[in-house]
Amino acid sequence: MPPDTPPAAESTCPRCGGPFHCGVNDPGPCACAGVTLGPGDFAALRAQYDRCLCVGCLRALSTAEPQPATRDQRYIDPV
Fold it and tell me: What does 18-39 look like in DSSP terms, one character per residue?
């Protein structure tokens, strides 16, 4: 595969439904490693979704205005 060809999409984002390549098992850093989310965001995302989100959704969430926590999000046990 030429170096500028993106990897084949093998995952579907549970937030937007779009196809994407999850790089968690790739030898290099996953693309989502460059996205910064606020404290508690990862726990809330884990509670809401059962798998990785695409980088576009993670970027959108990282720039979104903070939303008040729902009752379910306030009572997430840290893992």
Answer: -EE---TTSSS--GGGG----T
User: pLDDT tens-digit profile of 2-46?
Assistant: 455 555 568 899 999 999 998 888 898 888 888 888 878 888 898
Task: Look at residue 20 and give its three-state secondary structure.
Answer: strand
Determine the Cα–Cα distance for residues 71 and 29; give it in Å rounded to an integer: 34
Q: Residue 20's beta-bridge partner residues?
A: 11
Look-up: residue for tokens 């093998």? 10
Q: Where are the alpha helices (DSSP H) in 1-79?
A: 41-48, 55-63, 71-74
